[in-house]
Write a structure and sequence with these properties.
The protein is an all-alpha fold. It is built from 15 helices and five strands.
Amino acid sequence: MLCASPAFATDLPRPLGVDDFIQPDPAQARLGQLLFYDPILSGNRNIACSSCHHPDLGTGDGLSLGIGEGGQGLGKNRTAGMGEDRIRKRIPRNASGLWNLGAKALDVMFHDGRLSVADTYENGFNSPAEEWLPEGLDNLLAAQAIFPLVAQFEMAGNPKENEIAGAVHQRIDYAWPIIADRVRHVPAYAAAFVRAVPHIETSEDITIADIGNALSAFMVWEWTSFDSPFDAYLAGDITALGPDQRAGLKLFYGKADCVSCHAGSLMSDQGFHALGLPPFGPGRTRRFDPMVRDVGRMGESDDLADAYAFRTPMLRNVALTAPYGHNGAYPTLEGMVRHHLDPLAALDAWTPEMAALPEVPWLAGIDFMVRQDTREMARQRAAVTLAPISLTDIEVDQIVAFLDSLTGAGAKMGRLGVPKTVPSGLPVDPRVTD
């Protein structure tokens, strides 16, 4: 195949295959499907994993910064709630897509990499829970799955609103047994866990690790994707890509140097890079940082060299996952590509209207506060290391065409889909029609 293809500055990656991914148990995947769409896992029983990671929205939420616990509706129609139940803060970062998170080679998650495979705490992971991470988690994705459940503004809720939120504010691991207890008291879940998980003999055996493992099994089962035209091309079908897509492929692995970060079969170096994306929102600060800003990887590593750097995303199905960037700054792939070509010029040209932010009047004063801090903006500009690259408009369009070729044939269909009902009897998020 490579002999029949144009010459590339960097070798193309090998094709992905089944063996590159965790093989989930079908019964656990079906159980995880129900849990993924069930609000029972949230503190106030009013939001599910699917509320911010919906298949109709490319496994994201269609927003730059999400509306978490307390919000109502889905996607661009999601509102911030009313009265005492309204949201207290926007989610600080964009809801990432869930594609290919079961890859065996994947060893780091979250935009700042605060969850990774490591033996830092002698439990297999370096995570925000440190030594209090529950035992029995099958893989990195299972560990990731249990953290949104105990995040105040994502799913847990505010202190004094429910027992889960209250427990989180004592110590993170105090909340997970409460969630597991909720699930084990739903007869249909109890029976399903006994059937699906060999070590569970009665409902009392169900732990948060079992819930995380089921959620992981579902996400791997549902959103493993390597059946795109690009994958067919890598496997030897040189007719799988059209002329513009082939030209974009050559640019991606050549002149545009996209491959310097989006490397390998997963199309990510799993590293962290400061791109100078336009900052806005509440930021994700460290406890001792009084400023409205997001320092990225440095918040986890405490290394100044990591300031404003964010993890390189994988790119399968990227055309489905707008808006783009760790904070969803760009509504289109073209905008994101152009930012990479000249970050500082793009930062200057960006306008707040480009952000997909549902109106929240009581947070409006915070949304763009960071842009008024000239010293902070100067620090963010100084961290950018990408040198400008000159491409024509046609070449930019060709790169976008190539990125479109990364969309899997079955990406929009899924395998199990959205259940009509869940065992708790709580409402399931509706399908998104716009």
